[in-house]
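G., before I forget:
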Amino acid sequence: MVDILIPILLIALSSVAALLSLESKSLVYGAISLAIFFVGLSLFFFYLGLPYLAIFQLAIYVGAIAVLIMFAVMVVGEGGSREPKSRLVIMGILGVVSIVSSLYFAVSYFGSVSVTQGSQGFNMSLLSSALINQYGLLIVVLGLLLSSAAFGAVALARREAEET
Amino acid sequence: MNDLLLYVAGSTIFFAIGVYGLLSKKSAIRILFAIEIIINAANLNIAAFARYAPYDLGGAQAIAMFVISIAAAEAAVGLAIIIEAFRLRGRVNVDEMNEMKG
Amino acid sequence: MISKSDTFTSRFFKVGAVGSFLLLVIIIYLLLPDILNAIKLILTDPPALLETDIFKLIIFPGLLYISIVPLIAEWVERKIVAKMQVRVGPLYVGGWEGVLQPIADLLKLLSKEIIIPRNADKMVFILSPVLAFIIGALPSIVIPYSPNYVIWNYQFGVVLFFAVLSFYPLAVLTAAWSSNNKYSFIGGLRALYQLASYEVPLFLSTLPSVMLSNSLSLMGIAESQSKIWFIALAPVSAIVFFIAMMAELERIPFDTPEADSELVTGWTTEYAGMAWGLLQFASYVKLTAFSGVFVVLFLGGWQGPSLLPPVVWTLIKVGVVILLLLLARGYYPRIRIDQLVRGGWSWLIPLSIINILALFAAQPFVASLVR
């Protein structure tokens, strides 16, 4: 019973944080609750028995991306009105309904899939050998992607005349 | 109901929240929040399958790590674009950015 | 004019005090068997007390230790900097050379009012120093001071340590923004540039130790230095880690966020009284955590000739590292912000990568030196 209570609690906490980040009046509170959402996801990964992925999520999402988002939010400042047009809200709710109704099909399909408990638990050497042997090329491509993203972001956001 | 279904349901709920935010917000930064929520929902789905129905011996987690890295690159570039758009216009309101329409 | 912050502060502190008391009661309830066991051991068999978990959590590598080392470090710092500047430093409080000066400072800060600016975001303003303290104190639970004195021997201790410490810019940004003061906001952005620029060299320079010891747990890294310390096998990485550590701690010479002549006190300008005291305390607690991990990663942890117990070796090494950090404060001038950012990105990252490549090349020769 406790076994199933913790994921439900984490889902509730994370969805509250996600909704707060979208609906809060101030953008900075939104950024802070987005960081709480990322921490909630990380707790999910810990509970799933994937500790390395959880720490990776903490270090990169909360440690880097949330900081970057908060920096951008503070530079941009709070601007514009916060009342969305009712047409957009209706579109949003239609999108939500269509996605949640796919949950019905998910239930009817996945309810019968046999789950195998990952019998060996988490093994760091298997992860690292898979990373090098199977996904080695992908890591190189990812490095190129990240460096080009960094160059692009610097080139876009740099001021030519003044400096901060 | 097995454990995998619980995590798939949770991932669907987060995805739905993200889609609601993506479609109904006017400020580009809120839309970026919604995109990050969607990416994390998909990542949770991948991680749940990596744990309960793994296709690969130990490497299924690596895919989730790649998704996190790609999301970091995309957030950096997206925020740079938003900052530049803010400098040119004074506010980031996606309804007003329609010069390339038609 | 009576500011509105009075009623908010008093209400917030009342709620906070009641909530913290309840949390303390819950924690004591959960730890009650351990506490009773410890009390029983005090009465019957004192040396066995040193082995219990509750001792580790509260006294030695835990709360009491990380609370006392900042006080000692603060006194030593003021004395050393004073001697280097041909002054005397604290002299009067406590009889001999002002040893009780840090306690006098603590009492003074406790008795001052915490002034909250009028248009500041009150809850975020008060909670940011608390968050900064938690981020500084939490990583110490994975540091091993001896094979017996480690609170949590986590198999990914290294990664967890640096992942938690990478939350610190978030606390700095919220503190700077909620002060509602454009100068402290500029100081916060400068602190963010510095902290972000030196995070990558910090992570990269821990890689040689992990590679050599084939383990991500701090205990495993300390155990595999029994033949030779890693500072001899990866000296460049040790230097890069030391420099990045000084930058992450915002100490002189990397003092730009607090540039006294330019920004008053930088991002902590609006903090007065115990909120500022908590921020200083958090800074010194981070200092002890970083020194502990430097000792474990490069200086061999608790390895040493067996004429002293391993714990004493660790404490001596931690003391030496803290002393070096305090000496750097009196000796160096402040580095400018553009030199700082350029140094972090274009000097330290290539240096740490060079060391990793050199270790790849020298791998067959050093494999026998490990463990």
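The radius of gyration of chain C is 22 Å. Chain C has two domains: 1-59, 61-370.

More on Monday.
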